[in-house]
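FORM 12-B: Structure-to-Sequence Request
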């Protein structure tokens, strides 16, 4: 009878030990799963942050390129305006010089004619 009791006791002890082992294994598995989920979440967050940073950098680069293009266009427009103004000034100066030369030529020709007219009339030209 005592033998049967000992065997039953050993069996229950073994059963209890198995149950404890199963519980420990389940806890370990749960902990491993939780750790894996946390790692995956951290990796996803890091990837999202990297993507956001890359998008921000691309936007900043695009804005800088647009600003540079606008500045270049403004400079080109200013240079074209300055060149046009210089050309207009040169044309005006040339026109003034040509007009002045024509006026001088007319004055010289007119003076010579007046001199000749006075000489023909027998008067000394004092012009």
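FORM 12-B RESPONSE
SEQUENCE OUT:
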């Amino acid at each position: 009878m005592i033998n049967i009791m000992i065997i039953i006791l050993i069996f229950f002890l073994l059963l209890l030990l198995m149950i404890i082992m199963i519980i420990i294994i389940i806890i370990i598995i749960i902990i491993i799963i939780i750790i894996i989920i946390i790692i995956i979440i951290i990796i996803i967050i890091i990837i999202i942050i990297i993507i956001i940073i890359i998008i921000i950098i691309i936007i900043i680069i695009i804005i800088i390129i647009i600003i540079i293009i606008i500045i270049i266009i403004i400079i080109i427009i200013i240079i074209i305006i300055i060149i046009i103004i210089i050309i207009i000034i040169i044309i005006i100066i040339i026109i003034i010089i040509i007009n002045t030369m024509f006026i001088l030529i007319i004055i010289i020709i007119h003076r010579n004619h007046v001199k000749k007219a006075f000489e023909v009339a027998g008067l000394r030209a004092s012009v």
